[in-house]
Amino acid sequence: MRAVQLTVTGGPEVLALVEVPDPVPGPGQVLIEVHAAGVTFADTMMRAGSFPAPLRLPAILGREVIGTVAAHGPDVHQPAIGSRVAARVPAGGYAERVAVRTERTVTVPDGVGDAQALGVLGSGLTALGVVDAGRVSDGEEVLITAAAGAIGSLAVQLAARRGARVIGLASTPAKRELILSLGAGAAFDSTADWESQLHSACDGRGIDVVLDSVAGPVLGAGMRLLAARGRHVLYGFAGGTLGSLETGQLGALMQRNLSLTGFTVDLSDEVAVQERIAELLSLVVHGDLHVPASDEYRLADAAEAHRSLAERRTSGKVMLRV
Ligand SMILES: NC(=O)c1ccc[n+]([C@@H]2O[C@H](COP(=O)([O-])OP(=O)(O)OC[C@H]3O[C@@H](n4cnc5c(N)ncnc54)[C@H](OP(=O)(O)O)[C@@H]3O)[C@@H](O)[C@H]2O)c1
To answer: If 0-12 CB within 10 Å is exposed, 13-18 middle and 19+ buried, where does residue 26 land?
Structure first.
């Protein structure tokens, strides 16, 4: 089968289309004929060698796929052959076929498109998790970084559904328009001095929750903008560094009852994960959650998809058509 493999970490050019043997589904697994694979910012970090967990090479990236069940492993009967399923895989998604444990598959309801299903399965789980981690509630001001991104665009809507006033950051006018169309009350340029602009816009009252996937200088700025009892949720470092806090900011944490929370999506409880995916899919089916889709790329153009993501040219879900 065709797959996109890397044998060294580096720039997008290390992603090579190669022929590899088909995977064989083992006990408890099904073989999925992949229609499309999600491409995420974390994939670009793995490729570059900057992801916290080291990559075992050679590697086939891709942790979210949608396709049809093509074969069962020993003693497996469900989902039925031919079912359209989405699945979270540990690796190997940028390929024509992938073997995956059945409990990691989700049958995709009719009417839910490939990008929508991939968006829910990967980015949606994280978006819901960070909104929960921030304890976003009615009437609060919530600042969301990379708000037009795959995760950010869903977090904007989920926070707005809880009655929060959402302020999004994004680097282009088109991205900021998208954020406003998804229910944000305001959008600021992530490449300008948004901290001062936001400080004036909030009348000095401050932000209740910051959902931060960029880190670096954003960490300090977000913490400075917090209102008393505010929460800063750190869940990524797309900016390239984690950043640091000054001693005065640590003092403010204590004196103003602020909190800095880390978040990583927890996939250990399969039943809870399936419930959350079902909740998100139901929102999509009922038209209550929109999954914006970026351009889609051919499997052979995986390097270009990575370039677009790393160069901040995408908004919404990015996927490879297999
Ligand atoms: N903790 C978890 O469990 C978890 C799970 C999955 C992903 N993540 C993290 O969540 C974040 C978002 O992932 P995603 O796949 O949805 O990506 P994405 O948000 O669609 O794309 C990344 C966005 O980050 C923004 N950005 C800001 N500074 C940047 C810089 N220096 N270089 C590149 N981009 C920069 C850009 O938005 P603007 O150009 O509009 O500013 C860019 O479009 C990533 O940091 C990822 O690692 C965390």
So the answer is: exposed
Which residue has its alpha carbon closest to ligand 1 atom 5?
126
| Model confidence pLDDT, tens digit, residues 198-242 | 988 887 789 999 999 999 999 999 999 999 999 999 999 999 999
The pocket around ligand 1, CB under 6 angstroms, is made up of: 40-42, 123, 126, 146, 148-152, 170-171, 175, 190, 213-214, 235-236, 238-240, 263-265, 309-310, 312, 314
Beta carbons within 8 Å of 104's beta carbon, 6+ residues apart: 87, 88, 89, 270
Distance 99 CA to ligand 1 centre (A): 28
Strand partners, 158: none
> CA 152, 182, 122, 275 torsion: positive or negative?
positive
Nearest CA to ligand 1 atom 40: 170
Whether residue 142 contacts residue 167, with contact meaning beta carbons closer than 8 Å, is answered with: yes
For the chain, what is the mean pLDDT?
A: 96
